[in-house]
Backbone:
């Protein structure tokens, strides 16, 4: 597991539900170099993020049986 602190812009958030009816989010972000990422998260609190706003994101990179997973574990706005 690796923790990463990165200043990112939120490009958009999509709310979805899986086959079991559980909600999840797809959060699209861009880092300071312009590289964009789509992060799937079950953390519904991320709906508080506003589109096209900069945030200090705390990201967690883990390795599981499906490969690398990037997740947002915390955020703040300055």
Residues:
């Amino acid at each position: 597991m690796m923790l990463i602190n990165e200043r990112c812009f939120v490009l958009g958030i999509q709310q979805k539900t899986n086959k079991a009816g559980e909600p999840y989010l797809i959060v699209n972000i861009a880092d300071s170099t312009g590289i964009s990422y789509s992060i799937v998260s079950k953390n519904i609190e991320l709906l508080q993020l506003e589109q096209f706003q900069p945030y200090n994101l705390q990201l967690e990179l883990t390795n599981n049986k499906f490969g690398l997973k990037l997740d947002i574990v915390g955020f703040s706005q300055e």
